[in-house]
Amino acid sequence: MKKIVIFLFWIVVGMVTGCVSNDTTKVIITAENYPLDTVRIVWMAGGEFKGEKVPLKNGKGEVEISAPEYTLVSIINDDPAQRITYGDGIIPSPSINFFAEMGQRIRVQFDGERWPIARIDGGKVNEDYMRLWGKKGPLERKKWELMRVLYSSEDVDKEPLKQEISAIREACQQMEYEFIPLNPDSYVSLHLLPGVRTSLPFEKYEQLFLNLSERVRNTEMGKSTSEQIAMTKKSLPGQPAPDFSKVDKKGNTIRLSDLKGKYVLIDFWGTWCIPCRRSHPHLVELHEKYAPKGVYFINVAQENDMKFRDNWLKVIEEDKMTWTQILNNEGQEGCDVVRLFSVTTFPTKVLIDQEGRIVGRYLGDSKELDKELEMIFGE
User: Fold this and answer.
1) Which residues make beta-bridge pairs with 60?
2) Which fold has domain 245-377?
3) 3-state helix/strand/coil string of 74-133
4) 223-274 pLDDT, tens per residue?
């Protein structure tokens, strides 16, 4: 009889507290000073974005999501007042992130006036993540405040702001770089690797991955990262550039192998990428200076969807890019140039020599490309 009473007690507890399915993650959100009555969460599954709008009542809401195990889930701030408008583009506010963990309740607490600082509880992976985010969140908040001043006002001295933003970015990257080797059996470390990739020599990046535990490296993301490292090795300086054949915006077939005998500069970008568009005036200057000397320029755009093709054509005209333009989305199943060159950061520029070998890869607004071109052409 006693056993039956105990059994019934736990059934009642389960009915009161609610059960979480072993193949879903329950997300419980508590928001303060957040002006909207819904909050949006998104994640990737099967190569596609998935999402839910969570209704908030008195700042509280919950939802069960079927995100794959250990998928990064982002809470998006849709408050228009929190975005930065820059020219024709928008810089969204940083997201609050956590990891899906099957059968777990993940509690996320945030204050809209201190976004993206948050408290995340639930599951071992999120416990690991909070040890990092507890220190990094306030820095991300400070960086966002500085960015809003930088982009929203013409009456401020921008250089000190840029320097402070850069210093915060470097401090955050250093936190991530230090976290990874100290936590080799944490899925968070694997997730952080792409963020530190751009600031490290490839060999150090690869070694960080190899030093992760076998358990972490054998996850789906671990296997994907391993494949990406193998692809990257094929597109490092000194390696033959992977050949490709794509149709440009005029309908001409462009084969990289047909351009041997010329230096080729490929710029990977997207209309959604504000740093890409900010780099275009200088790219136009480089074209004017080096195209007459025999450098063949190619822009390869990666858009979020083919429906943005018209906008892609519009931006090309606006940014005065008169050279070869390729939309990677077109025929991407047969030839994915972004993947061939293992591009994960936009903008990325790749310089190829007359023999078809990669001279260098240049991320963001790196000045190394200018130096390389000056060395080659003696100016």
Assistant:
1) 30, 57
2) Glutaredoxin (3.40.30)
3) EEECCCHHHCEEECCEEECCCCEEEECCCCCEEEEEEEHHHCCCEEEECCHHHHHHHHHH
4) 989 998 988 888 889 999 999 999 999 999 999 999 999 999 999 999 988 8
Question: Nearest 5 degrees, angle CA 120-CA 125-CA 126?
Answer: 5
Spell out the domain ranges in the chain.
21-152, 245-377
pTM metric for this prediction: 0.74
Q: CA triplet 70, 114, 278: central angle to 5 degrees?
A: 80
Secondary structure of 247-270 as H, E, C letters:
EECCCCEEEHHHHCCCEEEEEEEC
In the three-class reduction of DSSP (H, G, I as helix; E, B as strand; rest coil), residue 298 is classed as strand
Phi, psi torsion values for 244, nearest 5 degrees: -150, 160
Is residue 145 a contact partner of residue 189, using CB atoms and an 8 Å limit? no
pLDDT tens per residue across span 90-119? 788 899 999 999 899 999 999 999 999 999
SS3 of residue 205 by DSSP:
helix
Q: Which two tokens stand for residue 179?
A: 């976290």
Residues near 38 by beta carbon (within 8 Å), at least 6 away in sequence: 53, 54, 55, 56, 61, 78
pLDDT (tens digit per residue) in 112-162: 999 999 999 999 999 999 999 999 999 999 999 999 998 877 778 889 999
Per-residue tokens: 253: 């077939």
CATH homologous superfamily of 21-152 equals Carboxypeptidase-like, regulatory domain (2.60.40.1120)
Q: Dihedral sign, CA of 275, 280, 281, 283? A: positive
pLDDT in tens, 264-304: 999 999 998 888 998 999 999 999 999 999 999 999 999 98
Taking the C-alpha atoms of residue 330 and residue 4, their distance in angstroms, rounded to an integer, is 64
Please say whether the dihedral angle defined by the alpha carbons of residues 161, 165, 170 and 172, taken in this order, is positive or negative: positive
Cβ(69)–Cβ(102) below 8 Å: yes
Spatial distance between the Cα atoms of 361 and 366, rounded to a whole number of angstroms: 10
Which residues have C-beta within 8 Å of that of residue 205, sequence separation ≥ 6? 193, 196, 197, 229
